[in-house]
Design brief:
mainly alpha; 48% helix
């Protein structure tokens, strides 16, 4: 596994360590990775804005990376 994904990472950092994450988030209706705010918005902030549990999302993304 590369770097562990955390909810404090920005979406830009997430895409750098896990390019496939954008597809996983899009499947949940979260198009955050294509948003201009992705450079500075954290995974936690994006999840909360979309009514998603950031801990659950991060857990799922880390499972996918194994």
């Amino acid at each position: 596994m590369k770097n562990k994904i955390t909810k404090n990472m920005t979406f830009a950092d997430l895409l750098e360590c896990s390019p496939k994450a954008a597809e996983k988030l899009a499947d949940k209706g979260m198009l955050c990775c294509g948003c201009p705010m992705a450079i500075q918005e954290t995974i936690e902030q994006g999840c909360l804005a979309h009514g998603e549990d950031p801990d659950k999302i991060v857990e799922e993304l880390n499972k996918e990376e194994k």
